[in-house]
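Researcher: Let's try something more involved. This one mixes different molecule types, so please make sure each is placed in the same coordinate frame as the others.
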Amino acid sequence: MRYFGQKLVQLIIVVVAVTFTVSLALAAIPNSEERILAVQGVNANDEEVRNATLDELHLRDPLIVQYGHFVQDLVTLDWGTTFGGNQEVRTAIWDGLQISLRLMIYAQLLALLLAIPIAVLAAYRSGGIFDRLSTTGAFGLISLPNYVLATVLSLIFAVRWRIFPVLSEPVSFFDAPVDHVKNFLLPTVVLALPLAATYMRLLRADLVNTLQSDFITTARAKGLSTSRILFGHALRPSLFSLLTAAAVNVGALVGGSVVVETAFSLEGLGGKTVAGIFSNEFRLVQITVVVLALVYVFINFVVDIAYGFLDPRVRAGRALS
Amino acid sequence: MSDTTVPTDDPTGDPTSNQATPGTSVTEDSAPATAKKFRRRGVVTMWLAVVWLVFLVFTAIGASWLPYVNHSCDQFADEAQCITHIDTNALLSERPPVWATFSDTTRPVVRDAAERAGLFGTDTNGFDIFSRTMFGARYSLLIGALSIVFGILIGGTLGLVAGYVGRRVDRVIDSIMNIFLAFPALLLVIFIVGFFSDSGTTEAKSRSIVPIIFALVILSIPPIARLVRANTIVYAQREFVTAARSLGARNSRIITREILPNVFPAMVTFAITGMAILIVAEGALAYLGLSVSAPNPTWGAMIFGGQSRLETAWWMSIMPSAVMFLTVLSINLLGDALTERFRIREAIG
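Model: All components are placed in one shared frame. Result:
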């Protein structure tokens, strides 16, 4: 319980700090007022209009009051419209989130599907040919920036062979399942491959350690089949750090798929943020960043708590320090 | 650049626990013959990586003087524009590399201009892609190196202080790091660069490298601070520190003379891997149009620029992509070799 309390306090501190930073970032931006007025198409020379607009956005208030308004708007989901005025921030974020979440889930699934069997096979004969090949491959994949991977894959599969579209369109799965797969496969693969490499390395290292434990020798002595030992006995206790990494990556992926979204021109959350930065849509960007950061923080919190439940040593270790 | 921060305070690169648990090294020793062969091949690849990096740094520094880099500036007033220009540029638009005999240009061959030109081909403006890539290396390497140096200085200091002093100071520093780690890494960088670069208007965003370096430094501080903190805690409890203290050494002396030299190998190794990550991040910024602006060549911008021409001129983005991959791979190989050399447990991420 004490562990839980400590984590909760940490969570609250981080949440306050994150919202505070993002809210007040607006004040630190060079000539933010001019930029906002320019986007809104307001005549910056007309003193009255100018003041009215700035007052409406609470830009003239003391910083702490600005922060209060920001939190209030955030909690009540009153996110307003974009400065350009043609879209609700809430719908914009919701639209983007749908695409980003889909990409994230597909990429995670594909990465785990690739990583687990490869890691098991590699760990089974560690030092063998398959192990060395897959470890080298994983090392190469980790060194491959995702925009490079996107370029190469789209040259081969979209430009030369024309199997997939060059620019993806978020077609609904229920309307056109084949098109849906075609449109999402390339971006998913680009996200999933480096991820799979990271996961594979993690799991392989843990598995190699697990396979040296006594209970594996026991299982072997009982005459269990190799696949039974690997998947039935060794895999489960080795999944700890892999699942942690996968959970922590959920938040990172939703925000970090910016590059892939740009490469395939998918209008996800990341793409919207970048577009917002270019068009000085501070409000949209602030809300997106806060939402993503909070999702990230909450997932980390849940992982920490789960760790505490699963492994009593973590709780004790934290209580000591 | 996935931020896989394992939530337990895992002392990454903790040297004593490495010696205490020989679990990882058992597998290496179990098959000594293959392991030895494996290691020898590792040495060869490591030296190849070093050769590539030396070549790249040498060419990047000497790009303005070296004979194999094109940079004739006679026809342009603005030096930045002409920097990688081939003499007859209008005639040499989108020519494939000289070795790519399988690839034809779709552009008509005018007068006596060659059908293929340059080691990496030419881009739409007739600029030599090899030269542009080498000039682009200046930005990538400079930004990566400067960011990691500042990151080490600030993050290392924070980590040393947090790990050595402990208690309240440690908790405060750790909380601040947690706040930075709460933002998805790339988004944080984009946020900082996009908003705080001093471009007043939306059009013509001429960016200097200062906000980019600033953003990348912020990105690199928390992981470095954590690594150094974990290592510092381990060494602060060792006998030689107690001995130094009982001899009357001041805290500042203990930190700089006793602890820092021991933490240093882990720091350097991490810095090398970190530099690779930062170079990739800078490339991502450039790819999104947020790095140093045109006409200055950057790798990310070249890759992005060539993407719409993939069908007719694949070399425009594939060649800088290849250089980027080789560079990141080489730096990672080097980092890996050093990790093994100093027996540092690998930092995940």
